[in-house]
C-alpha cells in the first residue's frame, strides 16, 4: 500500500499532490496512489446502501469491479470507491445526490478507452455505457440527433449513413465502441474530423447535472438570452453571470494564447464563450473530462456523408517528406488525410497484422492516405485523379495508387487504424506505451515538427513509429518508455517536458485528440501561462465549487509521474477477478481495503 493511503500519513490529499509535484514523481517511485482530499472519510457502507436503495441500475463495490475500473487505456491506476451503471438520467441524478450526501467524488466513464487517465480516479465511477444507449431522436431535415451518453458512435452513424447519407463526422479509431459520453468528455476527433471538425464543433446542446444537483440545458446563447438568464437569478443565472465575467476578464488572453489550429484539444474550451463564438456553453463543456458536470443527453450535428469514396495513396521517400506535402493536398478538399511511416509497416509485419494487405501501398517509406468523397464513384475518382495529376508534375512526385472499391478502402483504413495495436507489443522489443501520443501542430509545420521529434527520440534512445491525422497536424505514437522503474519514469518525465516545448515552439497543442487528464494536465501552464490556468481553475469552480467532479484531472492535476499502473504485484484475492495478462489488458491493482 502506498504511503499516501496509510494512517501514518497525516497530509491532506492536496498536500500529498503538491509534495509529489515538487518531487517530480509520486510516492513509491511513481506507483503509489494519490487520493482526493477527504475521500478517506467517506462512509462507504452508508454510501453503498443509499446507492443500492435509490439507483435502479447496477451498484458494484466488490474487489473485482473495483479492480477492473481502476484502469482505463492509459498508464494510470486508481481504484475507485465503487461503480454505478445507471439505467437512465434519473439514476445518474440519484447517484450524484448520494455521492454529494457522503462527500464522495464522482467520475463519469464511457467505454474506458481514454489514454490520459481521465476516467480512473478514487471516486464513484458512473459508467454510462451499458444501459444509457438510447438514440432519442434523429431529425434528418434539421441534421441533428439526440443521444444518451452511452450511445456508441457507430450505433448512430451506421443508421444515419444508411438511411439519410448523414453522419457524425468525428470517428476515432475506436468508433465501433466509443460512446458519445466519452467523446464529449475528451473532445474526440478522428479520421474524418478533417471534414467537419472535433466533437465540440459538432455539439449543439447538452443536458447536464452538476454535483450540487442542478440540472441544466445548455447551448449557444445570444446576448439577449444571456442577460435574461442572468436576470432570472438562481443557480443557473449565477453560473452564466460568472462565466460571462470570466470571459470578459480573459477574452484578450484567450484570443492571443489559444492556437488557431484544427486540433486544439488541450485545456478548457474557454474560447467558446467569446462573443464571436456565440457564448456556447455546451461547447465550452465539451472536453472538460467530467470535471465540471455529468452529461445526461446530447444534441449533436449530422453532416452529409459522401456515399462514394476514393482513396489516393501516396508513397514518399520518408514520413518527413510526406508531412511536407500535407498543405498542398489539403488544397484539394479531401474528406480524410492520414499518414504513416515505414516503422509502423515493419511492426505490422512483425506481429503478423494485415500482412497480406500491405502490398496495396505504393513504393516509399512514408505514406499519405488521401480520401475524396462524392455522390458517385465517378465524382470521387475525378477529384482523386485531379489531385494525382497535380502531384505528378512535381520533381519529387510520390508513387501513387488509386483505390475506389469499398473492400479495398476498408483494408487501407484497417491498416491505419491498427496503428495502436500493432505498435504496442512487438516481438523482441521492449513494450511500447502511450505517454506522449497525440500532440498536434499546424499542418504546414508538421514536417518540421516530425524531424525535431525524431531527433528528440534519438537523444533519449526511444523508438516509435509515427502515424496519425496528418491532415490536421496530429501525430500518434507509442514509445518504448520504461514505466516500471523509478529511473525509467524520471527519464520519461524529462522527455515529456522537452516534447511539450517542441510542440509549443511549433505553435501546437499538447493534445490533439486524447485530452489532458493526468498525462498532460501538469503541462498546461507551459501552453497557456499562469493566467489562463487560473481561469481554468475558476471555470471548474463555477460548476463544481466543492471540487468533487473528477478531481485532480485537468485542474490542479495529479503529477504526471504518479498513480502509475505498471510494476505492481497483484494480490491473489484480486488476481482471480481480473483477466490476464493483467498489465496488458486492465493492468494490475493492489487495492486498498474497502471500508465496507
**At CATH's second level, what is the architecture of the largest domain?**
3-Layer(aba) Sandwich
CATH class of the largest domain: Alpha Beta
Helix content: 25-40%
Shape: globular
Question: Explain this structure to me?
Answer:
With 596 residues, the chain is an alpha+beta fold. It has three domains: 3-131 and 548-585, Uridine Diphospho-n-acetylenolpyruvylglucosamine Reductase, domain 2 (2-Layer Sandwich), CATH 3.30.43; 135-304, Uridine Diphospho-n-acetylenolpyruvylglucosamine Reductase, domain 3 (2-Layer Sandwich); 308-515, Vanillyl-alcohol Oxidase, Chain A, domain 3. Helices cover 37% and strands 14% of the residues. It has helices at 13-23, 44-54, 63-68, 89-102, 153-164, 180-186, 193-196, 223-232, 234-257, 281-285, 319-324, 326-330, 342-351, 377-392, 406-417, 419-422, 446-459, 486-505, 524-543, 572-575, 582-585, and strands spanning 58-60, 82-85, 106-109, 124-127, 135-139, 144-147, 166-167, 203-209, 215-219, 294-301, 303-304, 308-316, 336-341, 366-374, 399-403, 467-469, 474-476. The strands form four sheets. Strands 15-12-14-13-16-17 form a six-stranded antiparallel β-sheet, sandwiched between helices. The longest helix has 24 residues, at 234-257.
Amino acid at each position: 500500500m502506498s504511503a499516501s493511503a496509510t494512517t501514518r500519513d497525516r497530509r491532506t490529499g492536496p498536500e500529498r499532490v503538491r509534495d509529489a509535484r515538487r518531487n517530480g514523481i509520486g510516492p513509491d517511485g511513481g506507483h503509489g496512489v494519490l487520493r482526493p482530499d477527504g475521500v478517506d472519510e467517506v462512509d462507504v457502507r452508508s454510501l453503498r446502501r443509499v446507492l443500492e436503495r435509490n439507483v435502479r441500475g447496477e451498484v458494484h463495490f466488490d474487489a473485482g469491479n473495483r479492480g477492473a475500473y481502476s484502469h482505463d487505456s492509459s498508464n494510470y491506476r486508481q481504484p475507485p470507491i465503487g461503480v454505478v451503471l445507471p439505467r437512465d438520467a434519473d439514476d445518474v441524478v440519484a447517484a450524484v445526490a448520494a455521492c454529494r450526501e457522503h462527500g464522495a467524488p464522482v467520475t463519469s466513464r464511457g467505454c474506458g478507452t481514454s489514454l490520459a487517465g481521465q476516467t480512473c480516479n478514487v471516486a464513484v465511477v458512473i459508467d454510462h455505457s451499458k444501459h444509457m444507449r438510447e438514440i432519442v431522436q434523429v431529425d434528418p431535415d434539421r441534421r441533428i440527433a439526440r443521444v444518451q451518453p452511452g450511445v456508441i458512435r457507430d450505433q448512430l452513424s451506421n443508421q444515419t449513413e444508411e438511411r439519410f447519407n448523414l453522419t457524425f463526422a468525428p470517428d476515432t479509431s475506436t468508433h465501433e465502441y466509443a460512446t458519445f459520453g466519452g467523446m464529449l468528455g475528451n473532445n474526440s476527433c478522428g479520421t474524418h474530423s478533417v471534414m467537419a471538425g472535433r466533437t465540440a464543433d459538432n455539439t449543439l446542446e447538452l443536458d447536464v447535472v452538476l454535483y450540487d444537483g442542478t440540472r441544466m440545458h445548455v447551448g449557444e446563447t445570444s446576448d439577449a438570452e444571456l442577460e435574461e438568464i442572468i436576470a432570472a437569478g438562481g443557480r443557473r443565472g449565477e453560473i452564466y453571470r460568472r462565466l460571462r465575467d470570466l470571459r470578459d476578464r480573459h477574452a484578450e488572453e484567450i484570443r492571443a494564447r489559444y492556437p488557431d489550429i484544427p486540433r486544439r484539444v488541450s485545456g478548457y474550451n474557454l474560447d467558446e464563450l467569446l462573443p464571436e463564438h456565440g457564448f456556447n456553453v455546451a461547447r465550452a463543456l465539451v472536453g472538460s473530462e467530467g470535471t465540471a458536470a455529468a452529461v445526461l443527453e446530447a444534441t449533436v450535428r449530422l453532416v452529409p456523408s459522401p456515399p462514394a469514396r476514393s482513396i489516393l495513396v501516396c508513397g514518399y521517400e520518408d514520413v518527413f517528406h510526406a508531412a511536407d506535402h500535407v498543405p498542398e493536398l489539403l488544397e484539394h478538399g479531401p474528406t480524410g488525410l492520414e499518414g504513416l511511416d515505414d516503422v509502423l509497416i515493419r511492426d505490422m509485419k512483425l506481429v503478423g497484422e494485415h500482412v497480406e494487405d500491405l502490398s496495396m501501398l505504393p513504393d516509399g517509406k512514408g505514406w499519405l492516405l488521401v480520401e475524396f468523397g462524392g455522390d458517385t464513384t465517378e465524382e470521387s475518382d475525378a477529384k482523386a485523379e485531379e489531385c494525382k495529376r497535380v502531384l505528378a508534375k512535381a520533381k519529387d512526385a510520390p508513387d501513387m495508387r488509386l483505390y475506389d472499391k469499398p473492400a479495398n478502402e476498408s483494408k487501407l483504413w484497417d491498416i491505419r487504424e491498427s496503428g495502436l495495436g500493432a505498435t504496442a507489443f512487438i516481438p523482441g522489443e521492449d513494450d511500447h506505451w502511450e505517454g506522449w501520443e497525440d500532440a498536434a501542430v499546424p499542418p504546414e509545420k508538421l514536417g518540421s515538427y516530425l524531424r525535431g521529434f525524431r531527433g528528440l527520440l534519438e537523444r533519449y534512445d526511444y523508438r516509435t513509429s509515427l502515424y496519425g491525422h496528418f491532415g490536421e497536424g496530429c501525430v500518434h505514437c507509442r514509445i518504448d518508455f520504461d514505466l516500471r522503474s523509478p529511473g525509467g519514469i524520471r527519464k520519461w518525465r524529462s522527455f515529456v517536458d522537452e516534447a511539450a516545448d517542441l510542440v509549443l515552439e511549433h505553435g501546437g497543442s499538447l493534445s490533439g485528440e486524447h485530452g489532458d487528464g493526468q498525462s498532460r494536465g501538469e503541462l498546461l501552464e507551459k501552453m497557456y501561462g499562469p493566467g489562463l490556468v487560473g481561469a481554468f481553475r475558476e471555470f471548474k469552480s463555477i460548476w463544481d465549487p466543492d471540487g468533487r467532479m473528477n478531481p485532480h484531472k485537468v485542474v490542479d492535476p495529479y503529477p504526471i509521474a504518479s498513480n502509475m499502473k505498471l510494476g505492481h504485484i497483484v494480490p491473489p484475492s484480486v488476481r482471480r477477478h481480473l483477466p490476464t495478462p493483467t498489465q496488458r489488458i486492465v493492468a494490475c491493482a493492489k487495492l486498498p481495503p474497502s471500508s465496507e
